[in-house]
Amino acid sequence: MAGGDEVKLLGNWASPYVARVRLALHLKGVPYEYVEEDLADKSELLLRSNPVHKAVPVLIHGGKPVCESRVIVQYIDEAFASAGAGPPLLHASPRERAAARFWAVFVDDELLAPWGMVMRSGTDEERAEWTRRTVAAVETLEGALGERSEEDGEGFFGGDRVGYVDILLGGMVPWVRVTERLSGHNFFDASTAPLLAAWMERFGELDAARAVFQDVDRLVEYAGTIQARAHG
Q1: Is position 66 within any domain?
Q2: Among 24, 56, 122, 218, whose Cα sits 20 to 30 Å from the Cα of 152?
Q3: Which tens digit of pLDDT belongs to each residue from 173-209?
Q4: Residue 34, by phi and psi: left (phi above 0), alpha (psi -120 to 50) or beta?
Q5: Both ends of the chain: CA-CA distance in Å?
Q6: Cα(81)–Cα(75) distance, integer angstroms
Q7: Distance (Å, rounded) from C-alpha 91 to C-alpha 12?
Q8: Domain identity same for 73 and 100
Q9: Closest Cα partner for 5 from 86, 48, 69, 59?
């Protein structure tokens, strides 16, 4: 990549949001430098690059920062759309692009937000409520994936290839395993969400997923410390 066009990613190894960006970069075939951030002692580069939220991920392209994982993935799709790059992540159709953006917001607000609270809940009652909300969101996504499968005969939200929504949800796949190990609850269980369970297996077989996904044992240890703080 040309000298003034380098790509650098500021991230943290455990973050599913950072994993999203890494998945997009791998799928598009974009070379990049990864910089691990200590979130307890954030670098000056991170604070300068994301002064509003002071959070990862941050993509720096040609010296200019792009923040927030959903925005970054769209940016990668548009900025690296030249010949030789990987396939587009968002559909050419405005209607399809709008639908993908709708489900992207749903994944973050209705699924991942309560899912994260399941791990952090301090009481059994709180955990039960966040679990109920997470299960409801999974049921909705299962229906959405079923509609895509009927339309396209394929098992991805992007139709016949991995797309924007797949990447956003795909960043959570290792955390599905972590939740099951720590709580005994698999939100993508084949008995209750067979389409999502099959989708998760297919996604995990992608070369990009193999390159990016975190070690589940290490994540379990990390998540255990989060739970200990929540209960302490």
Answers
A1: yes
A2: 24
A3: 999 999 999 888 899 999 999 999 999 999 999 999 9
A4: beta
A5: 48
A6: 10
A7: 29
A8: no
A9: 59
Beta carbons of 161 and 87 less than 8 angstroms apart: yes
Q: Tell me how crowded residue 44 is: count the other CB atoms within 10 A of its CB.
A: 7
Do 149 and 54 share a domain, yes or no? no
Are residue 43 and residue 139 in the same domain, yes or no? no
Q: Indicate whether this model's pTM tops 0.90.
A: yes
Same domain, 35 and 105: no
Q: Are residues 108 and 63 in the same domain?
A: no
pLDDT at 4: 62
**Spatial strand order in the sheet of 58-61:** 33-36, 7-11, 58-61, 64-67
For residue 15, the SS3 value is coil
Domain residue limits at 166: 94-231
CA distance 72 to 85: 16
Q: How much is the pLDDT for 226?
A: 76
Q: Are 124 and 182 in contact (CB under 8 A)?
A: no
Residues 6+ apart with CB under 8 A from 122: 230, 231
